[in-house]
């Protein structure tokens, strides 16, 4: 009886062993295919970024040969940004106007009155981001193009070159970035954009390593209602409390930061 029991368990262990090996092989094969698909998408994204297609210009013309951005022109870096963040921004830039018959409230600096779409059963934020140069380009991109470009730029490494600025400007920018303005209920930038401004996930982009002009321009767009596509309206609420000096100080501080990104 003991011999039969041992043989029974031995057989069971062998079957479990083969099952584990089978699952492992399937998993490894699946990972290999996923990596292969990602590499193919990255290559396609690189080709589109460098050469463009038809009336779509290559991204490198404005965002640099390695996605590093152009400081003097205020064109942002894309290298090393989160995949989900890049995809969302391109889709928001490409967003069409609401269908006929849908009513949008006028833009207001009071966030409670920012644009809302009204359809029969739903009220939701349109998630708009408008740019005179990027919006027409983004509208020509397919979802596959957007995904490929996002994977390509996210895979690129990046090393920031700190931009010098007046020390008093940097001190004021640091104070705002690290402590905010508690007396006005304004949170510190690091609360969402991470301790060194490196960003966090798909919702909170990096500020370090971005051109100062770009950061100021984006805050202006939040204040003017040309951008309204953040999570829960957090950035909209913050931007509305920033003065012109605040924008310059915070932007100079983050343009002055060191940052090394390995690429995803």
From TrEMBL:
State the protein's name: Cystathionine beta-synthase
Q: Which InterPro entries match?
A: Cyt_c-like_dom (IPR009056), Cyt_c-like_dom_sf (IPR036909), Cytochrome_c4-like (IPR024167), Cytochrome_c_Oxidase_Subunit (IPR050597)
Q: How is it modified after translation?
A: Binds 2 heme c groups covalently per subunit.
- Which compartments does it reside in? Periplasm
Name the source's superkingdom.
Answer: Bacteria
* Limits of the Cytochrome c domain: 40-157, 175-258
- Kindly list the GO CC terms recorded for this protein: periplasmic space
The yes or no answer to whether the keyword Aminoacyl-tRNA synthetase is present is no
> For this UniProt entry, what is the primary localization, expressed as one broad class?
periplasm
Which keywords does the record carry?
Electron transport, Heme, Iron, Metal-binding, Periplasm, Transport
Question: What positions does the entry give for heme c 2 binding?
Answer: 189, 192-193, 235
| Molecular function GO labels | electron transfer activity; heme binding; iron ion binding
Q: So where does heme c 1 get bound?
A: 59, 62-63, 134
